[in-house]
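Bug report

Summary: C-alpha cells for NACHT domain-containing protein differ between web form and batch submission.
Environment: batch mode, default settings.
Steps: 1) Submit the sequence below via batch. 2) Compare with the web form result.

Sequence submitted:
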Amino acid sequence: MDNQSQSVIMLLYQRMVNDDGWQNKQASSSSNAGSSADLVKALLDYYRSANAAKCRNFLQSVCMLCEDIPMHLEARLMSVACSEYEQIWSFSTASANYVLEGRNLLLSRWKRLTDRLVKAVELDRVWVNFRNFRPMFSPQLEPDGDYGFSESKVTMETFLRGCKGKVTFLVGQAGSGKTLLMSCLGQQWANASYLFVFLEFRQLNQLSRSLSLSELLFQHYLPSNRGNNAEKAIVDCLLSNPEKSCWVLDGYDEFLWKIKKHRMPRDLLNLEEPLPVADLISGLMTRQLLPGSTVVVTCRARDIVDFYNLSDKVGELLEWDQNEIKEYVHHFFGVEGKSYFEATKLLLSSQHLLAMSSLPALCNICCICLKHLLLKDRNATQVPSTLTQVYLTAVAAFLSRLPDQGGGDNRMSIYCFVFIHHVHNRMSIGFTLYYTSFINDSATFLSCQVELRCHDGTLVNAYSFIHLTVQEFLAALRIMTSHKVSDAQLKKRFSLKTRWTTKSDQKTPFTDSLYLYVCGLASPNCTQVLVEVARASGVKGVQNWVRKRQDLVLRLLRPLCHSNTLTGPKLLQLCNCIQESQDYELAQQALRTRPTLELRNFRLVPNDIDALAFVVNSAADQAVGLDFGACSMEPECLDALSRCQCIHFLSFHSRKYNDKFAEKLSCILPGFPNLRKLDLSDNNLQDDGIGHVVELFTKLPNLSSVKLGRNNSSLQALNCIVEKMGSCLNILQVYAE
C-alpha cells in the first residue's frame, strides 16, 4: 500500500477501529503515530487473526478506496471478497445468476480464443501509448493516427489501472490485438463479481430495429427464459449499482453507423426505452445510461475523432519491435531444430515481412508463409518481394492443406476460385458451415472459430479472417480472375487512399488496401497464378484475358504517375502501388513528372521508405531527390533509407530532428555515392549534431552543397564547419546562417 495516499490508509484504518469488538491500545498508539507504515502494520496484524467475514469486508473496502490497483489483482481480491455473489449483487438470486451466466460466457469465449494462441497474453508485457487530448483540439483535418495527443509509454496493465467508472478508449490498427486483449480483460473480471458485458459492433450491426438496453441484455447478449420478474430484478440491480458493471464495446471501425455528436442524448435515459442501437451506445458513453459504469471502447486511431470530449482515457497499442517479433517466431516454430533460426533469418531479410510482423495477426500470417517456404525448401533464401506475393504464398499454404479429392495441382485453383467467390459475397453462414469439415487444420490462416448470434437469438459457429487484409487480398484476387467483374467495375473500385482523415469522412473499412493488391497482382510474377485461378472460373482464352486485365491496371496507374497535383500521402500510396506492380517503367514515369518527391506532415514507417527506394532506384541517370518536411519517422526508417542508392538531393526539415537523428543519419549517408546536395536547415541540431554532419564531408566525394541554417547550434559549430571545409575541396557551398 506504499503507493496509496495517507487519507486512504487512514480510512481503512478507521473502518478497522470501528469493527465490532476491536478496541485496544495498539490502535490508539498507531492512530496517534500517524505513520502510514505503522497504520499498514496495524491493519495486517489485525486481519491475520480476523474471521473470514471481516476479511471479505476489508478486501471490498480496499477495492473501493484504493487507486491504481492492477486489474488482475483487483479481480482476484474481489473474487475472494465476494465468494457469494449476493454480497455485491445483494438484491436477488436472479441478479447473481445473471452474473454467473455472463461469467461462463466470458470464460467460454476466452477458451475458444486461446485454443490456438501461439503465446500467452500477458497484460504487463503489452505496450500502450497513454494519450491525453490537448484542450484546444478542434481540427477540421488531421493526419490519420495523429490527432493532437500528448503521450507516454506504459504497459497495458498500468493503462487499465483506474479505469473503473470511466470511459476508456483503446485504439490500434487492425490485427494489433484489441479484441484478444479485451477478452483477456473479460476473463480476469469473470473471476470477480462484476457484470461484464462484451458487445461486438459487428454483432450490433444486426440490430436494425430500436430496442431498450434491457432488451439488448436479455434478448441479444444473454437470452433465456427468465421471466419478467427476474429481468426486472436485474435491471433494478443495475440501476442501483451501475459501478459494478463494465461494458466493453469492441470494434467500432466495423460499426455500420457512426456515433454523431448532434444525436447524443443530453438527459438521463430509461433502460426500458427503445432506441436505435447507435443511441444506446452513445447513451453509455455520455453517462446518460448507467452513470458510474465502466465503459471500454476499441477502435482505429482514425475513429477517435468521433468521441472527442467523451473519453476519460485514451491508449494506443504499440506495434511489436524486433525482439517481440523474434519471440513470437520462436514460439511459432518451437525450440527444436533449425526452423526457428532459418525463419528468423528470412524474416529479418525482408522489409515487407518485418513490417507486417509488427502487428500480431500479420506476424502469424508471415510465420505461415515462412513455414510453407521452408517446407518446400529447407535451404530457402528467397522471400516474397511484395506484400501481394506474401499473401499469395500464405494462401498457397492454406490451400495445400485442403483434402485432395483428385485432380492433383488443379484442385488448388478450383478450391481457390470457390473460396474467393464466396468471400466476395461476404462469407455467408452457409459457406462457413460448408467449409467447416475441412478447414479445422488450417484455421490459423482463417483465424479462430467465433460464435455468431442470429436474429432469433440462437448461436452458430463460424470462422473469421485473422485480419481484414486477408479478405481484401482475396477480393482483389477475384477482381483479377473473374469475368463477372467488368473493366468498368474495376475502374470504379480503383482509387488511391489518402492518410488524411476529415471529420465528415465516411468509413470504408473494406477497401483500405484493396487497390494495393490489385496492383500487386498486375505484376508478371503473379501471371501464372492468375491464369490458373481464372481457368477454374471458366474464363475463355484465359492467357490473353489475364494479361489484358493486368494491362488495364497498369494503364490506370499511368495518369497518376503523370499527375503533378498529388498530395504527399497520395504520392506515397502511388509509390506503394508501383512497388507492388514491380514495374520500373511506371516508376521512371513518376520521377520524370516530379524529380524530387516531397512528403509533408505525416508519419512514415519503414515500408513507406522501402516503396520510395523502389521508385528512386529506377531513375538510372536521372537526378532525383527526397524532401521530408515535419514527417514523424521511426529510427528504422533511416535504415530503410540506406536502400535509396540513386539519390542526388536529400532534405530534412523538422524540429523533431535532433542530434540523435543526425548521428543516425551520419551512419547511413556514406552509402549514398551520388549525393550532391544535403539540406538540414530548420531542424533542432545542436553542436554535436552539426559535428556529425560535418564528419560526412570527407565521406561523400560528390557532395557539393550543404545547408545547416536555422538550427540550435552555437559559434563552436560554425568553427567546426570552417575547419572541415579547409580539407574538403568538393564542398563548394555551406549555408549556416
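Above is the batch result. After comparison, the two runs are identical; trailing whitespace caused the diff. The first strand starts at residue 127 and ends at 133. The chain has 32 helices and 17 strands.
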